[in-house]
């Protein structure tokens, strides 16, 4: 059953792409009408999603102006809430990790409530161990508790990756700190950050406020908006543009919170994490799969609370242009490997009889359509739309539909450029403080770089998505392992 669900996403993608090519040759009239309708559908969808993006953007800016700690202090018992902050580390440069801890130390929240775990890997070697000890020496006294863990290599039933490292680290924190001090599990919020994640001073106040005021704090994940801007000014142009796509998508999803799952840096109740047995140690996409582990364990009684508040991380880069391009492709492919959520989710739905059928259909459609569009939509819109004219029959080229295809689809796509440039403006607003060399001309360049979007989403979004779905479909030796994105400054 699981194997069938693994094959399903890739099979649908390849079937759709092949069928479009064949129909462009066999039945160009019908497929031309489909392309016109599909282009109009995506224009409407872009308009719809843009309004959600603007709504979330407005809420994020409003929340950034609020001092959250005074609001938290108005809630009785707030001081009994602890933050377990887990930072998995592999071979990140010490400078990157140090900046993360400088941001933690600057938090406008009592550090006496912070339990910080720097989760290192034995595979990281001596250099990573020395970097971790240097961090502990400099910052260890700033927090209530500071723990460095070393995840052993080669444990049975595990794959190397964040899920296995985080599980090892949190179990150690539970055993050595939480259980020893008898801290109630219900009073602990677990934040899982990448080692380059920098939280703004008010972030933990905002998180605590949400945890203490939401309807079901022990049945909720908490999702910030990821901004990949720490090194945005030194990143190559393709990385700069692509770094805003997950940000904008997360903003759209935060406004549609009924569809919101978890992605990269996030927070969750420690009690729930213990209940489900922590992260899966044999799967790659631990950041999104943990949502489904909660959802299935609690029979659908789980949701993701949108924080409407950012954390900042690194954009993908490299020592050379070619290396940066390769790193970006591999990062996008790893994110697209989140398609493994589908067999995990569907297998769980089949086994769990308590989750309402409407919820199962809802989430199945959201994820199947999402990954299908991720892999196919750019190809259909930017490449395949011209196939009926190119490979259709001579008789088709003489029809009104053939004449109308380019004259209808072209203007529709041109209209979508308006919203592309609106996104470009938002991306400039989201930039961090400008370095000294940044001049007025750079605003123009950062605006015009968005003209590269059609080519970039084909090469760095659709292609890696198709590869990931194909690998999952083929299985065995084609499956992806965890690939840690290299960090550099």
Secondary structure elements and pairings:
Blueprint: H1 2-26, H2 28-64, H3 68-73, E1 82-88, H4 94-105, E2 114-121, H5 125-139, E3 145-151, H6 162-181, E4 188-192, E5 198-199, H7 203-213, E6 220-228, H8 237-255, E7 266-269, H9 270-276, H10 286-297, E8 303-313, H11 321-336, H12 341-351, H13 357-382, H14 387-391, H15 394-397, H16 400-429, H17 440-448, H18 453-474
Helix pairs in contact: 1-2, 1-12, 1-13, 1-18, 2-8, 2-16, 4-5, 10-12, 11-18, 12-13, 13-18, 16-17
Would you give an account of this structure?
The chain is an alpha/beta fold and 489 residues long. The protein has a single domain, classed as Alpha-Beta Complex (Spore Coat Polysaccharide Biosynthesis Protein SpsA, Chain A). The chain contains 18 helices and eight strands. The strands form two sheets. It has a five-stranded mixed sheet with strand order 3-2-1-4-7, with helices on both faces. α1 packs parallel to α13, α11 crosses α18 and α13 packs across α18. The longest helix has 37 residues. The chain is globular and about 80 Å long. The model has no long low-confidence stretch (mean pLDDT 95).
């Amino acid at each position: 059953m699981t194997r069938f669900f693994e094959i399903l996403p890739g099979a649908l993608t390849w079937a759709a792409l092949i069928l479009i090519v064949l129909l462009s040759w066999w039945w160009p009239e019908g497929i031309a009408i489909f392309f016109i309708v599909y282009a109009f559908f995506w224009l409407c969808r872009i308009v719809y999603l843009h309004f959600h993006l603007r709504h979330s953007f407005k809420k994020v800016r409003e929340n950034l102006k609020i001092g959250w700690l005074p609001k938290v202090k108005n809630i009785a018992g707030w001081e009994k809430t602890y933050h377990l902050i887990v930072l998995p580390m592999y071979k990140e440069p010490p400078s990157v990790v140090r900046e993360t801890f400088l941001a933690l130390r600057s938090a406008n929240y009592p550090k006496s409530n912070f339990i910080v775990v720097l989760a290192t890997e034995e595979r990281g070697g001596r250099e990573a161990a020395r970097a971790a000890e240097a961090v502990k020496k400099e910052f260890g006294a700033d927090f209530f508790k500071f723990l460095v863990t070393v995840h052993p290599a080669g444990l049975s039933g595990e794959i190397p990756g964040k899920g296995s490292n985080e599980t090892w680290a949190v179990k150690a924190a539970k055993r050595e700190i939480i259980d020893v001090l008898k801290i109630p599990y219900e009073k602990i919020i677990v934040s899982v950050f990448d080692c380059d994640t920098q939280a703004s001073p008010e972030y933990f106040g905002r998180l605590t406020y949400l945890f203490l005021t939401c309807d079901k704090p022990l049945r909720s994940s908490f999702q910030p908006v990821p901004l990949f801007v720490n090194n945005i000014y030194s990143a190559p142009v393709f990385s700069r543009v692509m770094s805003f796509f997950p940000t904008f998508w997360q903003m759209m999803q935060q406004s549609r919170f009924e569809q919101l799952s978890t992605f990269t840096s996030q927070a969750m109740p420690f009690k729930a994490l213990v209940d489900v047995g922590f992260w899966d140690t044999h799967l790659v996409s631990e950041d999104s799969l943990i949502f489904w582990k909660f959802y299935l364990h609690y029979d659908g009684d789980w949701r993701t609370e949108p924080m409407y508040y950012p954390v900042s991380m690194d954009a993908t880069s490299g020592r050379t242009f070619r290396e940066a391009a390769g790193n970006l492709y591999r990062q996008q492919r790893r994110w697209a490997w989140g398609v493994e959520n589908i067999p995990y989710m569907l297998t769980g739905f089949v086994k769990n009889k308590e989750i309402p059928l409407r919820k199962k259909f809802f989430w199945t459609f959201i994820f199947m359509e999402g990954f299908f569009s991720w892999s196919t939509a750019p190809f259909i819109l930017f490449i395949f739309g011209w196939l009926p004219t190119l490979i259709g029959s001579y008789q088709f080229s003489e029809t009104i539909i053939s004449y109308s295809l380019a004259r209808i689809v072209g203007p529709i796509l041109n209209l979508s450029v308006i919203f592309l440039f609106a996104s470009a403006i938002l991306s400039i607003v989201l930039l961090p403080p400008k370095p000294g060399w940044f001049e007025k001309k750079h605003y123009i360049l950062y605006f015009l770089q968005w003209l590269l979007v059609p080519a970039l989403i084909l090469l760095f979004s659709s292609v890696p998505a198709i590869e990931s779905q194909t690998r999952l479909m083929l299985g065995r030796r084609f499956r992806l392992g965890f690939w840690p994105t290299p960090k550099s400054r």
